[in-house]
Structure formats: structure tokens, C-alpha cells
Amino acid sequence: MSSFALVGNPNTGKTSLFNTLTTSYEYVGNWAGVTVEKKVGDLKNGGGQLVDLPGIYSLHPLSRDEGVAASYLMDETPSALINIVDASQLERNLALSVQLLEYGRPMMLGLNMMDVAKARGIRVDPEKLQMLLGIPVVPLVARTGKGSSEILGMLPKIPEISPSQIKLDYGIAEAAIEETEKLIASVSGLPDHRWVALQLLAQNPVIVEDLASKIDMDAVNRISSSCEAQLRQAGLSSTLPEWIRSVRNEFIEQICSAAVDRSSQKPHSLTERMDAILTHRFLGLPIFLAFMFLLFKVTFDWIGTPLSDLLDGLISGPVSDGINKALDLAGASSFTHALIVDGIVAGVGGVLVFIPQIFVLFLIISFIEDSGYMARVSLLMDSLMEAVGLNGKAFIPFIIGFGCNVPAVMSARSIEQPKDRLLTTLLIPLMSCSARLPVYALFAGVFFESHQALIILSMYVLGIVMALLLCKLFSTYLLKNESSVFIVELPPYRLPQGRTLIRGTWEKGKGFLRKAGTLILGGSVLIWFLSYSGPGGFGVDMDDSFLAKIGGLMAPLLAPLGFGTWQSGSSLLTGFLAKEIVVSTMNIIYHVPNMEGLQGQIAHSFTGLQAYSFMAFVLLYTPCLATVGVIRKETSSWRWTAFSVGYAVALAYLISLIIYQGGRLLGLA
């Protein structure tokens, strides 16, 4: 089966094209590090498989995700390469293209963002570019699908096309390249030997590591040192990698001068004018916080809550009535009736009513991401992140964590420095994921009805502030960081496509639905069983159940925090499986028919101060089971995994204690 590799810089529309050409869908975001490993999809025309490699600026990797691309090209032999470039930033994008041309495989160039280039007054001549590079060039607008059908139709023919015949002359370094080629001649299974030799001499760590045990690396170092001595003697360059880059850059300048017309380029684009305001040194962060407040206002006050109320009426009314009638007609036993109605419907239904709010939130977040604004947020946060021991790139996984902590932890692979990557991984669980939203919505709706958006925004801000403070603490005493450089791609602002928004919202939200049908369903059944049984047998009073006994063990510990009841203890304990199960547990414990009934029970069991303390505890305490699993996988350490759970529980206890006891001292109880 033919295999085609999709390669390009971050933010060139590579993954958007992947989604158009294949039957699968991958998450699309306007920042580096979204594709943290290769993604494989089947082409729609059945012509083979398409491999989406992480966005990279060069084959010389700076981070783990960038290393995936170099390893793939070294270990596998794709039928052809599809290099996607940004037509409005062609000179920079061609730095990677030249390295791919030297790889020696059939190749196609996808000239994307032609609409952006045109809007900026930049004219790129695809025919001229095709003639100069010696490979097919296809103009594209990937976000609208323009040009995608042409690429799909050409793919079966590309493997039959001869690789580009372009061979750059590296001058003095040519002798070193030839000598290195002779050293690797005996190694089988390598791609183009000239390409491998160039990567070795350019000190690509992936290639060096791969060949370290197969060739004489001392000989390679001697060849490199001898060549560098000649370069210095000729006054050309101090290092061989620097000389290789300079030759490539000169070639790229020649290509661009012939194929790109910038005579009509506009001095200030709309993007630049908007950036002057949105990324302003002093106004940028207040504008971001205003956007976040508006987001929560729409989600919880204007649109999300009314829709949730309608869904709650549907589940507690027609759906519950229908299930009850069906069970009565079937002659179900009291045990089966209680299991389905009091366990499954109450537990799962109690979480499903928040689906409208979660999907509205994801829709707005998808809009902000696709518009190009979210990448600016990481830039705004760079100076603040640097002050606490990281850089703006670490804020990108934090933002992803607002949706779900699991992919956020995985996206930390894009961070270059190992200590920075570990520190970011440990702090991501403090980001308020969508699983916590049902808890916030429940308590804020009861105690802070007229200020829901502000209260829920405060939870997100509290998580970020705690992450920044702990980052400073950990980077100072626990994980002293190495210096690193922050590079972020700032895409042009654009109006997102409706189809892309809907698809992106669904991809984010379907994980919540999947959990409702699996983990939350199973958890609800387990919780109901513990509430239905006790030391005295089955059908016991709730206060005499196993669930009450287990929660009662935690109640004294939670009393100083304001919620020292077995109901709260049980809910928090089961919340380790998934944070949504906190609401499911409460629905089962209080045995209420609908959300209005649960809100009434909550109003009698908590005060406003206790509710806020409880919300803060849910925000900060132990990550869910899935997040703990992915932290173990990414850190390869049970010690750091246990640390992430331990410090989170301790932090949650401390902050909730301060909130409740401090509030009491201020007379807020």
C-alpha cells in the first residue's frame, strides 16, 4: 500500500488538509505542538495512507515531537512526500523544503494560504516555482478545501515521478560529504546517502543517535573538524552546520526572487493592526480576561443554562416517565427498577444535563482557536511564564487543558527542555478541564445565580494562579530549568469556517459523551450499589450504606474546609474516576428526580462560602484516573506520578482551608 508523508511548518494548514484528504479527523489548532506524534489516515480515494507528521521548522529537532519527523524519514520509506508551505511566508518555509528535496524521494509542494498572500499583496508564481524546484506545485486554500481535489487526484501519480534533480553545491564541504557517504555505504536500509551524510555533518541528533552504533562516529567528527578548519581558513564560516545553512539560504533567496513578487505588498495588514491592540503590552491581558468573562457569560447565563434547563426537563420528564412505564410493563423487580432509575438514569442523566453548556463552551473556544487569537495568548503570557521559570510555549498545553487534561499532558512533548516539559506536565492538572464544569455549574447556579460567569471565571483564574506560583516554587527548589527559547507561530487572523467549527466542537465534546456512556455509567452503577447495600444487607437506608461508611471516614478530615459530611466525602472520592462523577454521586445520594431537586438539596446542605470552598477543592485535588495514567506514561516515573497526586491533594486542602476559615473570620459564613 502506498504511503504519503505530509510535512510542513507549524500553522501551514497541514492538518486541515489531512482532514480533507482522509476519512479521519485530527484536532486543528493555531499553535505548534498540536500534532505531537504521527497521525495516519486512509485516503478518501482508497489510494493509500496519509501520514501527518508534527509541524517542524527543520529536520534538526529541538523537541520530542519534532524528532518524530526525522525518525520517520530515517526509519521508513514513504512513497512520496507532500510538503505544505505558507505562500505568504515562502522564504522561511522553503528552509524545510530544501532538506526534503535532498531526501531523494518523489515530492509535491502544496502552496497553501494563497488567499492570505493575495490579501497581503504578495504574488507567488506556482509555475515558476515548479520549474525552479523540479517538482509538482499545487496552489491551495486548505481551510476551504480549494485545491484539495487536485492533490488527491495527483497522489497516485507522484510515486512514479522522478525525485527533484536539484543538487546544491556546498563548495568546500563537498569533499566532506563524499567522505561521509563512503562511511555509511556499508549500512543497509538507509535513505538517500547524500541526505544522510548532510544530516550527520549538520549534527542532527536523531540521525547521529541512529547511526552511532553502526558507523565510526570518530571518523565523522574528524571529517567535520577538517572541513571546518578549511572553512575558517577561507573566511567563510566558523562551523560546518552554519555553512550548510548559509548555502541553502542563498539558494532559497534565488528561488524567491524569481518566483515571488512583493512589489504590491501592503505595509500594514489587518493582522498587524489587530495585533497592535490585542497583543499590547498593557492592554493584552485585560482584553484576554474580558474575552474569557464574555465566554463564560454566554456559556452559563445567556445560552448554555437555558438549554441545559430544557434538557433537564426532557430527561426528568418524558425520558424518566417512559423508562418507568417500560419497567412496570416488563414486570421488573424492585432491585432492577432501583438500579436503572435511581442508579443509571439519576447518575448519567445528572451529568448529561450539562452537555449544552459544555458544547457551547467548546464552540466558542474552537472559534477563538481557529481565528488565530489563541496563539497570541501564549505570546502575551511569555514574560509572566518566564518570570516563574518557564516560557510562553508551556502556556499552550495549559490552554489545551481547559478542554481536557489528557491531550494537554501529551501536547507538552512539544517543549524542548526535559525539565520544562516535566514541570509543565506536573502543573497541567491544575487547569480547569470541562469535566469540572458540571460541578461549577451546579454550585454557581444555586449560590451565585446572578454572578455565575464571574464565579466560574474565578475558578479558571485560581487554577492558573496556583500553577504559576507552584511553577516558581518547583523551578527554584525542585526542578531548576535550563534556558530555552520561545518560538511561536502567529497565524493571520481569519474568520473560521462553519463546518470546521462544528466538526472541531464535536471532536472536543464527544469525549464527554463517550465518558457518559462508559466511565460515568459504570461509576454510577458502582455508586448506586454502594448506596443500596450496607452491613445490614440490601435495600438499607442511605445513612447505613457502605457509601455512607466510606464517606464518613473522610468527613472529619473535610470538616475544617466547611463540607465535613459523608455525602461530600463520598462524592470527592468517586470523583477520582472522573470529575463529572462528583455530580452523579450527589444525584444518587440525594435521590432527586431532576436538577431542580438536586439544587434544592445542595442549598440545604451548603452555604455560599462552603460551596466556593468545595468548588476550589474539586478544581485542585487529585487529577482524574485518565490524567494520572497519561502522566505516568509521559514521565515514565511512578515517583513523579505519585508526586502529582500528592501535591494536588495537599494544595486543594490548603486553599480550601484558607477560603473557608478566612471567610469565616471575615464574617462570610
Layout of helices and strands, plus pairs?
Blueprint: E1 3-8, H1 14-21, E2 39-42, E3 49-52, H2 64-75, E4 80-86, H3 90-101, E5 107-112, H4 114-119, E6 123-124, H5 126-133, E7 137-139, H6 148-154, H7 174-184, H8 193-201, H9 205-211, H10 217-233, H11 240-259, E8 260-261, H12 270-278, H13 284-302, H14 304-330, H15 334-352, H16 355-371, H17 373-380, H18 382-387, H19 395-401, H20 405-411, H21 418-427, H22 437-447, H23 452-477, H24 498-517, H25 519-532, E9 533-534, E10 537-538, H26 546-558, H27 566-574, H28 581-590, H29 595-605, H30 608-620, H31 625-635, H32 638-665
Parallel strand pairs: 1-3, 1-4, 4-5, 5-7
Antiparallel strand pairs: 2-3, 6-8, 9-10
Helix pairs in contact: 3-11, 5-11, 7-8, 7-10, 13-16, 13-23, 14-15, 14-16, 15-25, 15-28, 16-24, 19-20, 20-31, 22-23, 22-29, 22-30, 24-25, 25-28, 26-27, 27-28, 30-32, 31-32
